[in-house]
From TrEMBL:
<keyword id="KW-0812">Transmembrane</keyword>
<dbReference type="InterPro" id="IPR005828">
    <property type="entry name" value="MFS_sugar_transport-like"/>
</dbReference>
<dbReference type="Pfam" id="PF00083">
    <property type="entry name" value="Sugar_tr"/>
</dbReference>
<feature type="transmembrane region" description="Helical">
    <location>
        <begin position="102"/>
        <end position="121"/>
    </location>
</feature>
<feature type="transmembrane region" description="Helical">
    <location>
        <begin position="70"/>
        <end position="90"/>
    </location>
</feature>
<protein>
    <submittedName>
        <fullName>MFS transporter</fullName>
    </submittedName>
</protein>
<keyword id="KW-0472">Membrane</keyword>
<dbReference type="InterPro" id="IPR020846">
    <property type="entry name" value="MFS_dom"/>
</dbReference>
<dbReference type="GO" id="GO:0046943">
    <property type="term" value="F:carboxylic acid transmembrane transporter activity"/>
</dbReference>
<feature type="transmembrane region" description="Helical">
    <location>
        <begin position="36"/>
        <end position="58"/>
    </location>
</feature>
<feature type="transmembrane region" description="Helical">
    <location>
        <begin position="161"/>
        <end position="183"/>
    </location>
</feature>
<dbReference type="InterPro" id="IPR036259">
    <property type="entry name" value="MFS_trans_sf"/>
</dbReference>
<dbReference type="GO" id="GO:0005886">
    <property type="term" value="C:plasma membrane"/>
</dbReference>
<feature type="domain" description="Major facilitator superfamily (MFS) profile">
    <location>
        <begin position="36"/>
        <end position="184"/>
    </location>
</feature>
<keyword id="KW-1133">Transmembrane helix</keyword>
């Protein structure tokens, strides 16, 4: 058992992991936790947006780079291959340098790679940029989900991350609507 002073007026006894969970839920939604939640949600939305948008714009990519069916498949799958690599190294990086640094670095990496992909002069630059974007997505999803489950107000015995993941279809639907607005 330990006692933690979390603010100037109260001391909290921590006897079990449930006590930690209750403390997190008690302070969720206050102060910086709202900022963390919104930042993580934006990161996950950007990931979902990127994973879906190529399906809407693949015809333009094929036309721009005169792609064969095989190269079209390589362009489309580059981000998925990068996501696998990102998932494999993300946990290790998080353990080594911390969640916050990894989260911020992968968001910066994602933005830079997206800009490079947008201005890709040839198909190989596009493939590399999308692969790097995939690495960022692979690193981002587990880190963002851990932030969301830690700082969210969800209470109860079920897994917070599982309940948050149930929102994934909404993120994909929202990204589809955004792309529809761009085309309009």
């Amino acid at each position: 058992m330990s006692t933690q002073e979390l603010d100037h007026n109260y001391r909290y006894e921590i006897k079990s992991p449930d006590d930690v969970s209750q403390l997190i839920s008690k302070f969720a939604g206050k102060g910086k936790s709202n900022k963390v939640i919104w930042l993580a949600l934006i990161g996950v939305f950007i990931d979902a947006y990127d994973l879906t948008t190529l399906s809407f714009g693949i015809e333009q990519v094929i036309s721009e780079f005169s792609l064969s069916p095989v190269m079209t498949g390589v362009v489309a799958s580059a981000i998925v291959c990068g996501t696998i690599v990102g998932n494999l190294i993300g946990g290790w990086l998080t353990d080594k340098i911390g969640r916050y640094r990894v989260f911020m670095a992968d968001m910066v990496l994602f933005v830079i790679a997206a800009i490079v992909a947008g201005f890709a002069p040839n198909v190989w630059v596009l493939i590399l940029a999308r692969f790097i974007m995939g690495i960022s997505v692979g690193i981002d999803l587990p880190v963002a989900m851990s932030y969301l489950s830690e700082f969210s107000k969800f209470n109860g015995s079920s897994n917070k991350a599982a309940r948050l993941a149930a929102w994934c279809p909404m993120w994909y639907a929202a990204s589809s609507v955004c792309f529809g607005l761009v085309l309009a």
